[in-house]
Amino acid sequence: MFTPLRSIASKANTRTYHDLARVTLIGRLGADPILRETSSGKPYYTYSVATTVGPRTTDETGNRVEPPTSWHTVFAFSEASHKLLPYVGKGSTVYVEAELEMRSGGNASDGTPLPDRPLLRHQKMNVINRVRPAGEEEDEELADEQEQ
Asked: Is residue 92 part of a domain?
């Protein structure tokens, strides 16, 4: 069943409809999230999520065939998301909601148009199974060494 999102735009009961381009991913982080900066100096994180579609199958010889893996790069500009991302590492299973925006691919050096590319803006993340990032394990080892 499909129900459009609605909101009341004014006291005159004029309804407006909002467009929505949202992607939901359930997969594993391909690497620890990376903190970067925009050209204006604003911090943001990027991280990649690996997903597969379909079950494992077997070929004619009885060997297992894994479904293909798709990789999705997500950009987290919201400072609220910056509190969680340093604490999840490569291999963590996550549920991610992101807004989808298509960016123009521009032109190649020879003038040939390049295909549009998707930009996934982080909106929400739930951690299903957490794996510690590489830096966090090192920090705990250093703390243990300092206590001795």
From this structure: yes
